[in-house]
Write a structure and sequence with these properties.
mainly beta, 32 strands, single chain, elongated, twelve-stranded mixed sheet
Amino acid sequence: MKNRLFLVVAMICMAMTTNAATNTKSVIKKLKKAKGVEVVFASSYKGRGGKPSLSMKIVGDQVALERIRPADMPEKEGVLKTGTYQDWASTTNRQVATLPSGKVISTSYNFKVGEGFVKELDDDVVLGLPCHVWRYNINSNTVDVWWTTAIEGYRGAPQLFNYTAPDGVVLKTVRNGDSVTEAVAINPLTQTDGLIPTNWGEAMESFEYQYACNHCYDINYRIFDQQAVKFSGEKLPEPSSLEADKQYSAGGGTIILKKVKLPENAHDRDIYATLTQYSVGDAYDRTGSVFVIPTDKEKSFLDAMYKLESVPAFKSGDVDYHALVSTPEYNVPLELMRFFTGFGVRQFNYNKVPGQEWVDSVKYELNVSPLVDYLQGEVWIGAYIGNWDANGHKISLTLTYHPADDDAPGGIRRCIPLFNTVNLLEQDGQPYPTFMLNDNLKTKFHLDKPVKKAKLLYVTTGHGGWGGGDEFNQKINTISLDGKQVISFIPWRDDCGTYRNNSPCSGNFSNGLSSSDLSRSNWCPGTVTNPEYIYLGDLEAGDHELTVDIPQGAPEGGSNSYWCLSGTIIYNE
């Protein structure tokens, strides 16, 4: 019985060996009189994909890699076009690109052959060809490579090697066990022309080349460039004299704004706001805000900058709080970014603290894509830093429009600005938003039709900079919709010590801490405050009311606690 089993196994092994040899001979025979070889690869990730996606052509010592475009995808004008090549005579990787602008750029760098793998795995077969299998460790990634010498006289791989290459034709790679590129066909070529082009355009280092290709579709709008935000008493000129692309100061000089022309339709873009700030006189941490002024209703924040009382208000106690809540005839400023300056960065960098190296300026960056509804066409964009210093701060602001991720949720992104209690006109007489002491914030909005999966984009920061003030004490924020509580949470930051190098003028205490280290109500000096995404669910058409409750602390002496809040309904349609 054992002898019979052994015989069966032996016969199976012989059959497999004979079939493999036959397949190898079949492939080699097909290529015998070829001038070159084309290997077609399919790629998959976690089992998804698998269609032919890459062609590798080999003629002599030259290799050209080309993405296979689906038959129903015609070639477009004004798009990035790239070429990827290997020159095995000089062991050089080459890349060339024609940018949408028409500019040609290129890069090249050498690779080594026949060494560098960390482990040799069991031999295998791909498309009937025997393959060695090498394992590499590249930038903490495990890459297994199947390569063959059965196609004599040819070498090539479906990717550029920034590590050493095996001395043969690579037919398969597996990265981290789930990203697979595998040959699905080997075809003979009859062409004899060289594959590598002769026009390389502007030569670059590889990192410069990759950056240029990655960002060739970006649209950058420089809104402000090292502009002063300071207490100067400045006000807007008469409305009839306002011009596009001209910077203005308002609110006593602590607001700067400009009317700019943005893309007409940007719903297929991801938008990032990048702001840099440094002090030219002010030593303290200050509240900052970047915002859009909606002008789609009868009144706007532009009217408030001329006369605060000209826009709607809500009354709390004996105080009228103008410009803080949207109404049918007025929209509040739509906040793009809440940021907080460090203590005197750049201007006071001469202060010495052991172990600290101060930054030259603070950079804040935030994804503002959900607010794209108001970031297209002609818009007013403003920036604010609350300070009373005659020199104040300087800021630069850029909006960058990137192509949206193909996997991003579809639909048109809509938003409805509800409230903004940042007292942007503080230096022009606008009161601090202290109404939470004995009241709450109520705002109404109307939907013309039902919406799905609505969210509240909510920014909250507590203020009152003494031991008993709300800046340093945890307070519950409770949000209700149409009388039903949606969420109750404590906005708080415990990571402020991470940003110590943004605050050269921060006070240092006898207990070893610095003022900029202390935990705060959802903000730290020298940082951006991330918005909260609060799920509201499916909303019916009609009128709705949203309420915010916060147990604001009582005043002490001449000091008050208050909360800077902004809220925007966002949804896709």
